[in-house]
Specification:
Belongs to the transthyretin family. 5-hydroxyisourate hydrolase subfamily. The chain is an alpha+beta fold. Helices cover 23% and strands 37% of the residues. It is built from two helices and eight strands; from the N terminus they run αβββββαβββ. The two termini are 37 Å apart.
């Protein structure tokens, strides 16, 4: 049994090393989003999402993406650019999405404004969506 626990400790150490080594690559893009449909309980593919940054009181568009089959955009921040501290906004273009599926909605856009304080952290913004309501929070 002692050799099994030593093997377990070695495997655990190797896993911790590989997870740590892989972490910077996974953290390369600091912003991701996820949209889940509260009516159906499934991810919402095909939602356009815009990322803006507040610069001296003006919103400047940085990037746009469309949620994939899993309702995700895993890398919304512009590729090759270092994240900056500041105030950002993701705008979920829900009106366009609902028009495409021929369903009415009360919210044509859902803006979520947030602050990046620590540029080494990842910021995940999930959106739980229905035609007449939504909820969001800081995910991981």
């Amino acid at each position: 049994m002692k050799s099994l626990s030593m093997f377990g400790a070695a495997a655990l150490a190797a896993f911790a090393f590989s997870a740590t080594a892989a972490e910077p690559a996974a953290m390369k893009n600091p912003i991701s989003v996820h949209v889940l449909n509260l009516q159906t309980g499934i991810p919402t593919a095909g939602v356009t999402v815009e990322l803006d940054q507040n610069r001296n009181g003006d919103w400047v568009k940085l990037a746009t993406g469309v949620t994939d089959a899993n309702g995700r955009i895993s890398a919304l921040y512009p590729e090759g650019k270092q994240a900056e501290q500041g105030t950002y906004k993701v705008v979920f273009k829900t009106g366009d999405y609902y028009a495409g599926v021929k369903q009415k909605t009360f919210f044509p856009e859902i803006p979520v404004i947030f602050t990046i304080e620590n540029t080494s952290q990842h910021y995940h913004i999930p959106l739980l969506l229905s035609p007449y309501g939504y909820s969001t929070y800081r995910g991981n």
